[in-house]
Amino acid sequence: MKKRIFLFGLLGMVLLSSCSVGTVDSDYSPQLTVTSVVLNGVAQTTLDTLKVGDVLQLSCVANGVSMPLTAVQIANDTIYSNLSFPNVSSLDPKVLGMSDLTKGSFVFTGLNIYTFAFTAQYTVKKANKDGAVLSFVVNSTSQYSPRKYLMKLCAK
Residue 67 and residue 141: Cα distance in Å, rounded? Predict the structure, then answer.
């Protein structure tokens, strides 16, 4: 009986010593999720070729996972499209003060913001059969930052 208790005790010590209790590696790359796509006022589940004059609204969420966000940049080819951000008036004044929305840049340095929801409105102004690129770059304090996302949008 004493041998069994000793063996279980020894096994427990080996199992516990193999774990690193209290140290957590939580440094992940930042994420971007498009939560909804609305084309000309109608929700979409799939997206085909856009036409000149189409208005595409993308509801997005940038997430630093376990690290604070430092910036989110959205860029488009201004020859083929316009990019705007409706409902920005509801943002924290500190975020608006540091950000440059004309350049598609939201800045959060020093604000400890982990999740940021926004809507990007993409308006097609010129046809491009080869596709215009909408670029998202999410930055956080993570060593795996920045993370870039590209969306190719064709217009006829």
Answer: 6
Which among 46, 42, 72, 45 has a CA at the least distance from the CA of 54? 42
Question: pLDDT, tens digit, for every residue of 84-113?
Answer: 999 887 788 888 888 988 899 999 988 999
CATH no. for residue 86?
A: 2.60.40.2310
Run of H or E including 5: helix 2-17
- 76 lies in some domain: yes
For the chain, the domain total comes to 1
| pTM for this entry | 0.78
Give CA–CA dist 141/66, Å, rounded.
9
- Residue 143's domain spans which residues? 28-155
